[in-house]
Amino acid sequence: MCGVENGVYDCPASYKIIPFLCSLFEDDPYHFLFNGSIPLSFSDYFVTFWNRTEYLGQNTFLPYLNNEIPGKHNATYTSNFRSLEKVLLGMALNDTVVYPHESEQFGGYAFTDGDKDTKTVYTMREWSQYKNDAFGLRTLDEAGKISFAQFQGDHLRFSDEWWNAVVLPVFA
Questions:
Q1: pTM surpassing 0.70?
Q2: Residue 53: CB partners within 8 Å, gap ≥ 6?
């Protein structure tokens, strides 16, 4: 539920209460240290959509997980992902942690070559890693093993009623 499947493309709202923090973070997101030694929690899955080269070269987690690094394909991860029986991708439509919220269903912002202001959202099926089936996402989707759900609300703030009506039946 509300996973950062394809990364976070902007600072969460809770960090924006300190006006300069997000600007400092975006200057060097993969090496930014809070208080000199503690990386911000979302650094490993932050996507510098305005600089693909930086994202692929500096992010040490997400590009490897999504098999985006040429020559570094993780066959074990792909095999394990393809072996899943069901995947439910739950999205909070008013999420203030994951931007854009479409990332919770493997969407994101298109890379814009230095332009932080243009934010064009793509969906899972429009994503290059889906199209080339880099880790088995398209395989699972075409096999009918992926379910999509959404709710009005903030990050992980779904109701018991929604959970019982939408999530539990998928795994029954």
A1: yes
A2: none
